[in-house]
Amino acid sequence: MLDTINKVLGKIDSFVWGIPLIALILLSGLFLTVRLKGVQFRKLPHAFKKMFANEKSGQHGEVTSFAALCTALSATIGTGNIVGVATAVVAGGPGALFWMWLAALVGMATKYSECLLSVKYRQVTEDGHIIGGPFYYIERGMGSKWKWLAMIFAFFGICVGLFGIGTFSQVNGIASAVNNFFDPNQQYTVAIPGIGTYSWTVVIASLILAFCVGAVLIGGIKRIASVSQIVVPFMAVAYFVFALILIICNITKVPAAVVTVVQGAFHPRAVTGGVVGSMFVAMQNGVARGIFSNEAGLGSAPIAAAAAQTHEPVRQGLVSMTGTFIDTIVICTLTGLSIVLTGAWQVDGLEGVQVTTYAFQNGLPFPHVVSSFVLMMCLVFFAFTTILGWDYYSERCLEYLTGGNMKKVMVFRWIYILAVFIGPYMTVSAVWTIADIFNGLMALPNMIALFALNGVVVYETKKFFEAGKHKK
Fold first, then answer.
1. Each residue of 384-394: pLDDT tens digit?
2. What is the CA radius of gyration of the chain?
3. What are the helix (H) ranges across 364-428?
4. What is the DSSP letter of 364?
5. Least enclosed by CB within 10 Å: which of 109, 238, 337, 394?
6. Cα separation of 112 and 316, whole Å?
7. How far apart, in Å, are the Cα atoms of 267 and each of 66, 278, 347?
8. What pLDDT does residue 2 have?
9. pLDDT by residue (tens digit) across 92-101?
10. Nearest one of 180, 197, 212 to 383, comparing CA atoms
11. Helix axis angle, 85-92 relative to 279-294, nearest 10°?
């Protein structure tokens, strides 16, 4: 019976995350790029300049633009940057990295548009805090008759946070990384009645993680943003430095690696020797993993963007789109090049994080134990901040669905912390498949809204730059 359920869920997952959704998100990015005359390319330097320049006090919002960006990055910079890239390159060949770049470049226009709309249509609640996201720009931008679509988005957003990206998959990633480093041979175990036998490292990691998550989440968005402002730049810079060291140490191989990536994107057989059968396989893996990593089009980042202290929707859209650039063009590229340079993608028997671990161990000029420790710590911090970011997204979705009932939101927060605690002991594969399905379904209402409101995005953009507000 369980096998049948898993097979059915697997087919649904393949359909939801199949060509239709991937093509829809990619084509949406291309459409918005054309409509906005390549705003993500023309205004990228300006966007980075405004990233750290806070607006004057007195603006609506709960956190600075940079803090809102870090909150969004806390959810997007996660295991996908390490594990997802490795999976894409192994399954689709080095050419998958090229398609990942393409998905990110057009995805920046999508991220810009959805975050602009989020700030424009956000709401100030009775107690003074800000709530916004696809549910509000669907309801207020498209009209109240579309509220059912907004509620569908909010429902899927709660499910993704509680059952998938936010809890079980991230917690398992942390527990596995810690266990593989400290007790790979399962020498120190404990039998938990009714659950099974686990390494002490898993038990201790789950307790520490649940405590740390609880300590941050109880403080709400401001504490999440405060932690994200410290942890996100730290972990991103640390990973960037070590990956850059790897590339510098193998600098003579870089030109050949870039040629391999580009050639593999259009002629996979020439690079993989027939292991990857077609350009389509490379494209599918690259685009899918790119979207999964930077979440452009899924509608998650706009929820964080809505809390920014700004009165200019375009300004926050510009700042938010840098997140896609940082996540994919910078961090995912470093991971992908590391894997291609060291030949890790060609080693038989390796999958997921093992591929990236092999690349770090064999590419860095440090003992293997040091390289493994660095990667483990990056995974832990990446996954930890993803847990924080997705709790915030889920809470805002629930707040919308319940009409602002904060008691229910507080109950949800404790359930979320409990899910983090029990996460390492959840081994049913169906949980991850269901989460993946909800993740894909979450994007559909958002895509509909972006197409329906693209005229608003174009108008706001034109008005902002013609008025010279970007120079202030």
1. 888 888 888 89
2. 21
3. 368-401, 406-422
4. S
5. 238
6. 8
7. 41, 7, 21
8. 58
9. 888 889 988 9
10. 212
11. 170
